[in-house]
Amino acid sequence: MILFRGPPGLISRMVLNKDQYIIPRRDGHVLAGSSLENVGFDKSTTEAAAQTFHAAAARLVPALADLPIEKHWAGLRPGSPQGIPYIGPHPEVEGLFVNAGHYRNGVVMSIGACRLLTDLIMGQSPICDPSPYRIDRGDFPVRRNNAN
Ligand SMILES: Cc1cc2nc3c(=O)[nH]c(=O)nc-3n(C[C@H](O)[C@H](O)[C@H](O)COP(=O)(O)OP(=O)(O)OC[C@H]3O[C@@H](n4cnc5c(N)ncnc54)[C@H](O)[C@@H]3O)c2cc1C
What we know:
This protein is of the alpha+beta class and 148 residues long. It has two helices and seven strands, in the order ββββαβββα. Helix content is 21%, strand content 20%. A hairpin with a 4-residue loop joins strand 3 and strand 4. The protein binds flavin-adenine dinucleotide (FAD). This is Glycine oxidase.
């Protein structure tokens, strides 16, 4: 991701093009992203990537070409092996509930995922069938600290 600082009102709406997006903020900041790499927990960034984003953003919205980059960062999108998030009680640790592995869609899914998790915690009739999201033994192994 890169963040530009521009004058408020420079861009009035979001611009989407395939995997690329430009998101203006009211205070003039403009967010541009994003790319995707399978690199484990590595959140480091490169100057080359920043320049690539800068050029791509300027192609979409030429007014961005001369704006400085205020911030450049990478975030994690933790997923699951099957591409289905884990939502529900941990099979080994009583009272522990998991809501994880949403990959690229955690924001979009948050309302439904949290509603399902709340239903399961409260013992209410769940909003949908929870079985596809179940956590099986071994999915989240427990490391026990036996040192006293
Ligand atoms: C660049 C980018 C763009 C994205 N765009 C979208 C989008 O447009 N729409 C969408 O739906 N999703 C999007 N996502 C995905 C979305 O951000 C994630 O699916 C969502 O944030 C996952 O939520 P989470 O709570 O599981 O994990 P996170 O949001 O990653 O939260 C995990 C939290 O745990 C904390 N933490 C980690 N380790 C520890 C520790 N040891 N102790 C204490 N705290 C810890 C972290 O600091 C963090 O606050 C995007 C992600 C990225 C990186």
